[in-house]
Specification:
The protein is α+β, with helices and mostly antiparallel strands. The protein has two domains: about 80 residues, Ribosomal Protein S8, Chain: A, domain 1 (2-Layer Sandwich); about 70 residues, Dna Ligase, domain 1, CATH 3.30.1490. It contains four helices and eleven strands, in the order αβαβββββββαββαβ. The strands form three sheets. Strands 7, 8, 9, 10 and 11 form a five-stranded antiparallel beta sheet that branches. A four-stranded antiparallel beta sheet has the order 1-4-2-3. The longest helix is centred in the N-terminal third of the chain and has 12 residues.
Length: about 170
């Protein structure tokens, strides 16, 4: 799989969510970006966080969000805890800026069933992979990169860059 330009990795997002979840915070804010919104919506669909809201530095406020300057836009994320434990326990980067992990659909399938591929351990019970796929005009995806959960990308017949694993 080839790629023209790999975008920045969400290392700050991963570290921030993991640390605030382990610190038993009910809610946290992150600088808004389309990649942060896409990754947090995957976490929401997977049941690892409770909500995602657009807002300002003062708090969640979707009505004020469009009128804010870009640096003041925040993404507010509600964190889940169950039986005294955080639901989102680990959120680790797989691809690093020095070593990008690009997989084909077949290699992604191996990872998803728990087998090793491309020097990456397979997923375990309760873990998901977040994959950044490329633009594909045949599939009608022409707005650049798209973040998908590993099984969604595999079902769509896509490979891509394995961004992070979440458990």
């Amino acid at each position: 799989m080839t790629t023209k330009a790999l975008g920045p990795l969400p290392a700050n997002l991963c570290a921030h969510l993991q640390n605030t979840s382990r610190g038993f915070h009910a809610q946290t804010s992150l600088p808004y970006s389309t990649s942060s919104l896409a990754i947090s919506s995957i976490l929401l669909r997977s049941g690892l966080i409770s909500n995602v809201t657009l807002g300002s530095p003062a708090g969640p406020s979707p009505s004020q969000f469009p009128n804010l300057p870009i640096p003041a836009r925040k993404l507010w994320i509600g964190l889940k805890h169950r039986n005294g434990q955080p639901v989102l326990r680990r959120m680790n980067l797989v691809s690093k800026s020095s070593f990008r992990v690009l997989v084909t659909r077949d290699e992604l399938g191996r990872l998803l069933v728990g087998k090793r591929a491309r020097n990456v351990a397979g997923v375990g019970i309760g873990e998901i992979l977040i994959v950044r796929t490329e633009e594909d005009q045949r599939q009608g995806r022409v707005r650049g990169e798209k973040y998908m959960e590993g099984w969604e990308a595999w079902r769509a017949g896509l490979g891509g860059e394995v961004i992070c694993r979440v458990g």
